[in-house]
Amino acid sequence: MNIATTVLVLLAVNYQAHAQDGLAGINEANAQVRSYFDAGTQLMYAIGALLGLIGAVKVYQKWNAGDPDTGKVAAAWFGSCVFLVVVATVIKSFFGV
Protein backbone atom coordinates (compact mmCIF):
# COMPACT_ATOMS: atom_id res chain seq x y z
CA MET A 1 0.00 0.00 0.00
CA ASN A 2 2.87 2.35 0.74
CA ILE A 3 4.34 1.93 -2.75
CA ALA A 4 0.99 2.67 -4.40
CA THR A 5 0.62 5.88 -2.37
CA THR A 6 4.12 6.96 -3.31
CA VAL A 7 3.45 6.32 -6.98
CA LEU A 8 0.18 8.30 -6.84
CA VAL A 9 1.92 11.25 -5.15
CA LEU A 10 4.70 11.23 -7.75
CA LEU A 11 2.15 11.11 -10.59
CA ALA A 12 0.18 14.01 -9.07
CA VAL A 13 3.33 16.14 -8.75
CA ASN A 14 4.38 15.27 -12.30
CA TYR A 15 0.89 16.14 -13.64
CA GLN A 16 0.88 19.49 -11.81
CA ALA A 17 4.32 20.42 -13.21
CA HIS A 18 3.15 19.79 -16.78
CA ALA A 19 -0.04 21.81 -16.27
CA GLN A 20 1.97 24.92 -15.42
CA ASP A 21 4.11 24.55 -18.54
CA GLY A 22 0.97 24.21 -20.67
CA LEU A 23 -0.43 27.50 -19.41
CA ALA A 24 2.86 29.25 -20.07
CA GLY A 25 2.93 27.73 -23.57
CA ILE A 26 -0.59 28.95 -24.32
CA ASN A 27 0.28 32.45 -23.14
CA GLU A 28 3.44 32.48 -25.24
CA ALA A 29 1.53 31.27 -28.31
CA ASN A 30 -1.08 33.99 -27.73
CA ALA A 31 1.60 36.65 -27.56
CA GLN A 32 3.33 35.31 -30.66
CA VAL A 33 0.13 35.19 -32.72
CA ARG A 34 -0.78 38.73 -31.62
CA SER A 35 2.66 39.92 -32.72
CA TYR A 36 1.84 38.77 -36.28
CA PHE A 37 -1.24 41.00 -36.52
CA ASP A 38 0.79 44.19 -36.86
CA ALA A 39 2.82 42.80 -39.75
CA GLY A 40 -0.33 41.33 -41.31
CA THR A 41 -2.22 44.61 -41.19
CA GLN A 42 0.75 46.47 -42.66
CA LEU A 43 0.85 43.90 -45.45
CA MET A 44 -2.86 44.42 -46.10
CA TYR A 45 -2.33 48.19 -46.27
CA ALA A 46 0.50 47.65 -48.76
CA ILE A 47 -1.62 45.32 -50.91
CA GLY A 48 -4.45 47.87 -50.80
CA ALA A 49 -2.11 50.63 -51.95
CA LEU A 50 -0.77 48.46 -54.77
CA LEU A 51 -4.29 47.56 -55.89
CA GLY A 52 -5.19 51.23 -55.76
CA LEU A 53 -2.35 52.13 -58.11
CA ILE A 54 -3.15 49.30 -60.50
CA GLY A 55 -6.82 50.21 -60.41
CA ALA A 56 -6.07 53.85 -61.08
CA VAL A 57 -4.06 52.92 -64.18
CA LYS A 58 -6.80 50.57 -65.44
CA VAL A 59 -9.53 53.18 -64.91
CA TYR A 60 -7.40 55.85 -66.59
CA GLN A 61 -6.86 53.59 -69.61
CA LYS A 62 -10.58 52.85 -69.91
CA TRP A 63 -11.46 56.52 -69.47
CA ASN A 64 -9.02 57.56 -72.22
CA ALA A 65 -10.37 54.82 -74.51
CA GLY A 66 -13.90 56.12 -73.98
CA ASP A 67 -15.32 52.87 -72.61
CA PRO A 68 -18.83 53.30 -71.22
CA ASP A 69 -18.27 51.01 -68.22
CA THR A 70 -15.53 53.13 -66.62
CA GLY A 71 -17.68 53.78 -63.54
CA LYS A 72 -18.17 50.06 -62.88
CA VAL A 73 -14.47 49.34 -63.17
CA ALA A 74 -13.59 52.25 -60.89
CA ALA A 75 -16.10 51.10 -58.29
CA ALA A 76 -14.78 47.53 -58.41
CA TRP A 77 -11.09 48.42 -58.07
CA PHE A 78 -11.44 51.10 -55.46
CA GLY A 79 -14.06 49.11 -53.57
CA SER A 80 -11.57 46.28 -53.17
CA CYS A 81 -8.94 48.72 -51.89
CA VAL A 82 -11.36 50.19 -49.36
CA PHE A 83 -12.36 46.68 -48.29
CA LEU A 84 -8.74 45.72 -47.57
CA VAL A 85 -8.12 48.87 -45.56
CA VAL A 86 -11.34 48.42 -43.57
CA VAL A 87 -10.58 44.76 -42.85
CA ALA A 88 -7.08 45.63 -41.64
CA THR A 89 -8.44 48.38 -39.41
CA VAL A 90 -11.15 46.12 -37.97
CA ILE A 91 -8.62 43.37 -37.26
CA LYS A 92 -6.39 45.87 -35.48
CA SER A 93 -9.21 47.28 -33.38
CA PHE A 94 -10.87 43.91 -32.68
CA PHE A 95 -7.75 42.21 -31.40
CA GLY A 96 -6.45 45.29 -29.61
CA VAL A 97 -3.08 45.22 -31.27
From TrEMBL:
Give the InterPro entries listed for this entry. Answer: DUF4134
Q: What is this protein called?
A: DUF4134 domain-containing protein
The beginning of the lineage is:
Bacteria, Pseudomonadati, Bacteroidota, Flavobacteriia, Flavobacteriales
What UniProt keywords are attached to this protein's entry?
A: Membrane, Signal, Transmembrane, Transmembrane helix
The residue ranges crossing the membrane are 43-61, 73-95
Entry's Pfam families? DUF4134
Extent of the signal sequence:
1-19
